[in-house]
Design goal:
Length: 372
């Protein structure tokens, strides 16, 4: 990600990437919006999902199913009087940019959790495969808890989202099941890495914990970790997903997830600053954790320490800043500049894609533990 000193100062362009959320209507409009850095709702080929075979990983599969059934988070997402007392006045303790970004974080996190809930529920309803049906039941349970917990925090601010309305109105994108497996695995694992990094930082710097929701991140992100383990087992049980031409797809999804996170965090730095985090150091720590975890299933790994990779992400961020500035400027000239900066961003992404990757053999045991 390069040095934080390289972040361009374009407040107007940053604001173009973050919605102003003042009312429930603003919140649901933000949740319904689809763009490059917003969570989407997905549909897929349910017949393909129905044919998934997990027998090659049966022993590990049965163990993780027992963990789901044990439900060690059944009493975790409870809000008590201490939560309410600590939450009171949280927004007033933030400057305008950090407040805008925190609310955007809550709405997009809610959308992401609810997106998983909607997709998993659709798969559950449309497959007969007992293993996949049961897994989706556990995932719906967990994601609905997460979404409900975030929405309760939004309601504290008078900004609760009507999830039934969101499910009806948000556009759905079709994704091939193979892409669902790649993207969902990465989403769950990088979600774990993001949340645990914030949690560990705030353990050391409790004065930066401006809202109590961050106290829930450790056990919350362990749910995300377990979800990712399930998708890792599915892919390892179907090894053709992890070889041949599919390695090029895996590289694409890895880069897309890392690049999206980098651009988002560097065009929205105020929230990280409020938490006492440097966006560049934070992002590379998250990449490091995610890359270590993903060795369980992906035989290729992005070389995030490569100077060419880091310089490329810096360039991609600057292209995004210029693109958003042109978009906010508007007019014909603004549109032409958008096209120019968009083309340059595409070229930068393409060069990043061909930065040499690391390769390794997959371990005999698939599962890893959330030790970070």
């Amino acid at each position: 990600m390069g040095s934080a000193a390289h972040i361009a100062e374009h407040p107007a362009s940053r604001h173009a990437t973050v919605a102003d959320i003042h009312t429930p209507a603003d919140a649901i409009h933000r949740a319904e919006t689809n763009n490059l850095v917003s969570p989407r709702f997905y549909t897929t080929d349910y017949a393909y999902m129905n044919r998934i075979d997990i027998e090659p990983v049966r022993a590990e599969w049965d163990l993780i199913q027992a963990e789901y059934e044990g439900d060690n988070n059944h009493d975790h997402f409870q809000r008590d009087a201490a939560f309410a007392a600590e939450a009171a006045g949280a927004l007033e303790r933030l400057d305008d940019d950090a407040r805008r970004e925190f609310l955007d974080f809550l709405v997009t996190s809610l959308t992401s959790e609810f997106s998983g809930c909607v997709l998993y529920n659709e798969i559950r309803q449309k497959v007969d495969n007992p293993e996949i049906k049961q897994l989706m039941t556990w995932l719906v349970r967990d994601e609905s808890r997460h979404a409900g917990f975030i929405n309760a925090t939004l309601r504290d601010f008078g900004l609760g989202v009507n999830l039934n309305e969101l499910r009806r109105n948000k556009a759905y994108t079709y994704f091939h099941p193979k892409y669902i497996l790649y993207a969902t695995y990465l989403s769950e694992k990088i979600g774990y890495a993001r949340y645990i990094t914030i949690f560990r930082h705030l353990e050391k710097h409790p004065d930066k914990r401006f809202h109590p929701i961050f106290r829930w991140f450790e056990r919350w992100c362990n749910d995300e970790f377990r979800h990712g383990e399930s998708f890792a087992l599915i892919m390892r049980a179907n090894p053709k997903l992890l070889e041949g031409a599919n390695l090029w797809l895996i590289r694409f999804f890895l880069l897309a997830v890392y690049a999206t996170m980098y651009v988002r965090d560097h065009t929205r730095p105020a929230l990280k600053k409020a938490l006492g985090l440097d966006p560049t150091e934070y992002d590379y720590r998250v990449f490091e954790i995610t890359s270590k975890i993903a060795r369980q299933v992906y035989p290729v790994e992005l070389d995030t320490d490569n100077p060419a990779f880091r310089a490329g992400l810096d360039r991609l961020h600057r292209r995004a800043e210029a693109f958003y500035a042109a978009k906010e400027a508007g007019g014909l000239l603004g549109k032409l500049r958008q096209a120019w900066h968009g083309a340059r961003a595409f070229g930068t992404f393409a060069r990043l894609y061909f930065v040499p990757v690391k390769r390794h053999a997959l371990p005999a045991q698939v599962r890893v533990q959330p030790v970070w």
